[in-house]
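Deviation from plan, reported transparently: manganese (II) ion complex.
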Amino acid sequence: MKSAVTISLVNEARGGPFVFWDDLPGACRVARELGFDAIELFAPGPDAVEPATLRRLLDEYGLKLAAVGTGAGWVKHKLNLCLPDAEARRKAAAFIRSMIDYGGSFGAPAIIGSMQGCWGDTIDAATAHGWLAEALHDLAEHARKYGVPLVYEPLNRYETNMATTVEQGLQVISRARTDNLVLLADLFHMNIEEVDIAAALRAGGSKIGHVHFVDTNRRAAGLGHMEYAPIIAALRSIDYQGYLSAEVLSWPDATGAAMQTMVAFNKLLVAGS
Ligand code: LER
Ligand code: MN
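Because the crystal trials were delayed, the predicted structure below was used instead.
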C-alpha cells in the first residue's frame, strides 16, 4: 500500500477535510520531506493548474498523482449527477469528464463523491439511480482510454442517500454495467455507516480501488478512536495495493496532520509488516 496526502485549491471547500491548502508547490515539498508517495488533488477545475506545472512539481519532488477530486463541481458550481434539470446534469457530467481528462494524463483516476447528488423532493430513488448508473457508465468508459478506473465513493447519510455503505456502493457499480468502476472506502464515512469496517472491506474485495485514510473524528489517523489493525488486515486480505490517502482535517495544522498520518502509516504498514 502507498501513502498519499490531500491538497485543496478550492476556496469554497474551506474547513473541509483536506490537509494542505492553496500552496501547491509548498505542499508538494512538505509531502516529499515527510515521505509521502503521492498527492491527491482537489482543484476548482481542469484549468486551475497547468498540466506542465503539475508535471514539473511531481517530477521535482518525486511524487505521483494518486487521484483528482471532482467535488468542486458541486461546492463551486452547484452541479451534480442527480439534479432535476437535464442541462445541469449534462454540465455535471461534462465537468467530471474534464477532470477525468486532467487526471488521466497523469495516470490518476477521478473520484465521484459529492457529485453523485441525492434523491428526494421531486426525484424518486429509482429515477436518480437510473441517472447515476448511466452517467457512471459513460464516465467510466471515458476513463478507460487513460488506463485508469473511475472511483465512486459512498458517503455518510448526511451527504448522500445514493450509497452510504460498501454493499450499496457495489449495487451502484453493478447497475452501471462497466468493469472500470471501483469503490473508494473512506474510513470516516464507513465509521458512521458500516456495522463492521473490516468485514465491509473484505466484501468489497477487488472493487476497493482507493482508501481515504482518516480517523473517526476526521482528524489524521491516530488522533481519534479508529481501530486500524483489523482494517489493515482486511486490506491485506483483499490484496489492496492502492493508496491510503489522508483526506483529513488540517489539524492541528497542515504539517501536523501530514506528519501524524505518516507516523500512523509507518506504524501500521512498515513496522507491522
Ligand atoms: C466528502 O465527505 C468526501 O469524503 C470526499 O472524498 C468526497 O467529495
Ligand atoms: Mn472521502
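The first helix runs from residue 24 to 34. We consider this an acceptable substitute for the interim report.
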